[in-house]
Amino acid sequence: MRLQAQRERRLSQKCITILDVRLAWKLFACIVEKPRKQRYTKRKYVQSIQRIKTPGAGREGNGMGKIKILLVDDEREEREGISWLIEKYQYPLEIMQASNGKEALQWIEKTKIDILFTDVKMPIMNGLELAKKVYETKPEIKIIIFSAYGEFSYAKQALEANAVSYLLKPIEIEEFQKVMVSVIESVQKENEEGERLQTAEVQNRRNLLYKIFSSAKIETEEAEKAEQILNLGTGKHCRILDIEFTENFFEEHEEIFLQFLKMYLGENTSYLEMYPNEAYVMVRDARFFTGNELEKQVQKILRDLQVKTRSEAAVIISEVVENAEKLEKQLEQMHQIQAELFGYGNQIVSTRGYYSETELYAQDAERAARQMMQAIESMDTELIDRQNEQLMKVVASLDKVSKIYLQNLLYSIIKAIYDKVPKIEFEEALALAEALFRAKSLKNMMEVYEQAVEKMLSFIQGEDQDESRIIQKIKNLIEKEYAKDISLNYVAENVNLTPAYVSYIFKKETGQTLVKYVTDIKMMKARKMLEEGTLKIVQVAKTCGYENQSYFNRLFKNYYGVTPKQLREKL
């Protein structure tokens, strides 16, 4: 007895140096028994279960998702016995089996395993070798070792492999249940924490992209992260599309949009929704990096969307983006073009042509255009006629001129004239501006421009519109009726103006689109209601005009970085 007591004391001290006291005493209890090599069968399991209640049963119903467990034993009956127990107690486990350590490693290489349940004595590679290799390469896997042998050498190696438990055969059912429940709960908690961190990382990445794309600014410390998210770098490039619709488009038509995106631009694309009417699309297929193939495919997308949804959009296409520096430059240009666009009408504009370094800037044409703009500002019709005639003579005398440059020069004059024209002519002015960009020759272009000037000049002396008063009326309407589905057409009807005119003056006066402004108001109202805490989240969504709860949650998270539920929990 004294020798046995000394042996027990020495062995327990060794265990404590390897792992915590609780597990050391557990192993100590296994070691002091005589080594047993007994086979356990399904019949023995049944006899044991008849004496025991099943505390682990039904845990899947408590939210524990399927966890993958790999059973490793060279005897099939042993594996089937453990499988039967797992199914008997309804543990939320997806079971896989291997007959030796080598086969188990192959499973682990190709499949995400959460729990490794392995015997010790096996051919080719034993369980302790397997446990050690798994701990070195996949330390997150929980290792349970079961064996008919209780020698200290086995227990010590199990501890070194970071095994969470060492079960002796025949397995005691209560001990088996206790270990399984503990390990499953541990895996579940780690998975939940991993999912939480992954969700937070995804949202952080989205927030960074949202900030960069909305501001067209990339801070030095953000550059590397932006390149990583957008998969930019050596040999990894993309082109960017900025797509802006006239109305709230994505809430109702997102699925159709993605369908056409995949159909015409392929799988290697991603998109970032900025507002209910605007999104950026990243195109990574190299066949769209040169030539005008991308423009052709975008034209098809707009065509099909118009047929399916009756929606029109303006699309701005970037040059090839290789890094964060080029991304920032392209976004700046896209924002500038976006501010200059005159209506929608399924326009496609490329920064490659819009800001080409090879543009021929004719000084005489520039001077004549500036004088024309000054005449327009003066509202003197005689001066406008005179300066317009001079401008047309200058353009006609040019031997060589860039079509795109001239289109934009004349376009800017039409836009300037429109600012002095009553609202009723906006639709006509817009049609003329679009015709200007569709003109295939200089002659046709000038004919369209001259027609636009003549039509608009006839209205210059008409009644001036108090645009500031109109904008204030629109804002008051939105503030009062934000709970409704406020569309551009609805606002236009309430202020007795055309939708196109409302869209134009609102953006000109406020610097943002009507859809963005309405969304801002709805989100501010929603946050206030959530902070007050008197309404349920679904009621807040409906009160702000959103019948689609999931869409409201996503939009709210885009704005504030947290879901409505998370905001409530922080209060």
Report on the architecture of this protein.
By secondary structure, the protein is α/β, with parallel strands linked by helices. The chain is built from 25 helices and 10 strands. It has helices at 2-18, 21-31, 42-49, 76-88, 101-110, 127-137, 152-160, 173-215, 223-229, 250-265, 293-309, 324-340, 351-354, 363-378, 381-397, 403-418, 426-438, 442-457, 467-481, 488-495, 499-510, 514-532, 537-543, 549-560, 564-570, and strands at residues 67-72, 93-98, 115-119, 142-147, 165-168, 239-245, 269-275, 278-283, 313-317, 347-350. The chain has a 5-stranded parallel β-sheet with strand order 2-1-3-4-5, sandwiched between helices. The protein is elongated. The chain starts with a helix and ends with a helix. The model is unreliable at 1-64 and 461-465 (pLDDT under 50).
Quick description:
The protein has 571 residues and is an alpha/beta fold.
Q: Measure the end-to-end span.
A: 64 Å
Alpha plus pi helix count:
25
Beta fraction of the residues? 5-15%
In order across it, which strands form the biggest sheet?
2-1-3-4-5
Calculate Rg over CA atoms. 36 Å
Beta-strand segment tally: 10
Helix percent band: 55-70%
Low-confidence sequence ranges? 1-64, 461-465
| Largest sheet entry | 5 strands, parallel
What is the overall shape? elongated
Topology, element by element:
Layout: H1 2-18, H2 21-31, H3 42-49, E1 67-72, H4 76-88, E2 93-98, H5 101-110, E3 115-119, H6 127-137, E4 142-147, H7 152-160, E5 165-168, H8 173-215, H9 223-229, E6 239-245, H10 250-265, E7 269-275, E8 278-283, H11 293-309, E9 313-317, H12 324-340, E10 347-350, H13 351-354, H14 363-378, H15 381-397, H16 403-418, H17 426-438, H18 442-457, H19 467-481, H20 488-495, H21 499-510, H22 514-532, H23 537-543, H24 549-560, H25 564-570
Parallel strand pairs: 1-2, 1-3, 3-4, 4-5, 9-10
Antiparallel strand pairs: 6-8, 6-9, 7-8
